[in-house]
Amino acid sequence: MRLQMYIDGKWVDAGAGGKRAIINPYNQETIATVAEGNKEDALQAVASARKAFDEGAWTKKPANERGEIVHEIGRLIRASREELAELETLDTGKTYSESLDDMDDIANVFIYFAGLADKEGGEMIDSPIPGSTSKVIREPVGVCGLITPWNYPLLQAAWKLAPALVAGNTLVMKPSEITPLTTVKVFELFEQAGVPAGVANLVLGPGKSVGAHLSDSMDVDLISFTGGVETGKKIMQAASTNVKKIALELGGKNPNIVFADADFETAVDQALNAVFFHAGQVCSAGARLLVERPIHDAFVNALVKRAKNIKLGNGFEEDTQSGPLISAEHRDKVETYVKIGQEEGATLALGGRRPEDADLQQGFFYLPTIFTNCTAEMRIVQEEVFGPVLTIETFNSEEDAIAKANHTIYGLAGATFTEDIAKAERVAGQLRLGTVWINDFHPYFAQAPWGGYKQSGIGRELGRAGLEEYTETKHVFRNT
Ligand code: NAD
After folding, report:
1. What is the CA(281)–ligand 1 centre distance, in A?
2. FRET pair for 140, CA 20 to 30 Å: which of 49, 153, 268, 299?
3. Whose Cα sits closest to atom 39 in ligand 1?
4. Where in the chain is the domain with CATH 3.40.309.10?
């Protein structure tokens, strides 16, 4: 496999010779050593994308032909799903079956956007000026800088790469420096599918020395970023240099509201899945559980009993339900938050420590952790921990549940569980969230938009809205 950057249609090492070891978080072994770029590499990649955009070989290609190439990328990803899933599990520690699901979703994302390539034609509008015509068309934005995090490395990249290409842009991709492997592999598939040189460029390296030079570049027209809120704020500031368009997919502290009339078993299953899936390292994790008072004690007992049995381990073993956290540094952060929760007076009902099993000592594991007696003001309830840590609060009425759920700076996603569908729809209508699930948690698909209210972000990915992010709107008026 290539371990280099891809600039102007060539696989290249970092100009200054930088390298980075990529670590398996399950056992701390080095999986690969990849090129690590710097500012010069970022600028070269931007120059390559600028030249390709200005020359127009991709932009001016008929939309259906761009769609065919993007469709072929989706097909190649499907054909390489096992190889890609293996890399993703080695790099992130997530289970192999989750990685396989990710790869299928990723192929679907490319195929979905490919299908939209020639269906976004402009529209004629009724001009109020006699004897004139007026049409509105969509055009590519230009050079796109795409920056992604480590938790869903290739999935988050796909949500950006597919619509950016379909809309006729050129791009520079910068994956997380911790988890670049599947993104590198997919750039090989881009080459195979026939994406012309210079259209899609890949730079590797840290945010400060590489990503920051995409966000403040005068030659980048749009930045699409997925990651933490604090990084998002820096990117917004940097993007002001040339008033770039920006799309930000940031963090969440997602409420999960369980009413007393919910189907108890489904709600327990989903409350566990909501927060402990991928060790809680999910932007839409249901880390903040709100349970209606009459069922609180029974619900907590059932959760604790089942969460105790979640099998941590090697993502490649079939009975493993959850892998490790991504890094030692990230586990330190989770541990700090658990300490904060205890100091704030929340009751530790489960976990709160590393596992003691001998076979888990080399990995960055942390036990599923549950806090009860939480209140809305606590930091453990308000701040994104991004780990296997659940906080539980109670509520007394529909209004109380909505007020507590909305009491956050975030607005990414959340759920409500109840058998009363009219109540569910009322609650969904009042939650300030980009996605609301009713009697389920986590489903998403290429056809539906994804994004956050409030500090969870700006703009949308996926769906038709996810393609529009990568277009400019032009009004052409003709006086006949
Ligand atoms: P992060 O913000 O630390 O890094 C994300 C990316 O930004 C990385 O590629 C990093 O190298 C780069 N970066 C860092 N500093 C930069 C700078 N100054 N300029 C430009 N680029 C810079 O986030 P992370 O720790 O990799 O990921 C976890 C975060 O991502 C969580 O907050 C999570 O909620 C969020 N996330 C959100 C979504 C969503 O859809 N809303 C999805 C996945 C993850």
Report:
1. 12
2. 153
3. 249
4. 255-438
Give domain 255-438's CATH superfamily. Aldehyde Dehydrogenase; Chain A, domain 2 (3.40.309.10)
Per-residue pLDDT for 396 more than 90? yes
Provide the token pair at 110: 């490319």
Distance CA 325, CA 334 (A): 9
Residue 461, ligand 1, Cβ within 6 A: no
Distances (CA, A) of 84 to 97, 128, 147: 12, 54, 20
234 Cβ below 6 A of ligand 1: yes
Return the number of other C-beta atoms located less than 10 Å from residue 54's C-beta: 12
2 pLDDT more than 90: no
For ligand 1, atom 38, name the residue with the nearest CA: 283
Over the stretch 268-304, which tens digit does the pLDDT of each residue have?
A: 999 999 999 999 999 999 999 999 999 999 999 999 9
Instruction: Establish whether residue 412 lines the binding site of ligand 1, counting it when its CB lies within 6 angstroms of any ligand atom.
Output: yes
pLDDT of residue 422: 98
Summarised one tens digit per residue, pLDDT across range 65-107 is 999 999 999 999 999 999 999 999 999 999 999 999 999 999 9
Residue 1 is predicted with a pLDDT of 66
Q: Which atom from ligand 1 is nearest to the alpha carbon of 461?
A: 40
User: Which of these is catalytic: 36, 177, 249, 393?
Assistant: 249
pLDDT at 121: 83
Q: How many angstroms is it from 230 CA to the middle of ligand 1? A: 9
Q: What is the CA(231)–ligand 1 centre distance, in A?
A: 6
Average confidence (pLDDT) over 250-272: 98
Residue 346 CA, chain-centre distance (Å), reads 30
Catalytic annotation on 29? no
Name the DSSP class of 151: S
User: What residues does CATH 3.40.605.10 cover in the chain?
Assistant: 5-250+456-476
Q: What is the DSSP string of 322-385?
A: B---S-HHHHHHHHHHHHHHHHHT-EEEE--S----GGGTTTT----EEEES--TTSHHHHS--
Question: Ligand 1 pocket, 15 CB below 6 A?
Answer: no
From residue 126, how far is each of 133, 359, 476 by CA, in Å?
7, 70, 12
CATH label, 5-250+456-476, candidates 3.40.50.1010, 3.60.150.10, 3.30.70.940, 3.40.605.10: 3.40.605.10
Q: What are phi and psi of 376, to 5 degrees?
A: -60, -25
Contact 212 CB / ligand 1 (< 6 Å) = yes
pLDDT digits (tens, 9 = 90+) for 101-110: 999 999 999 9
Q: Which ligand 1 atom minimizes the distance to the CA of 175?
A: 9
Complex ipTM: 0.95
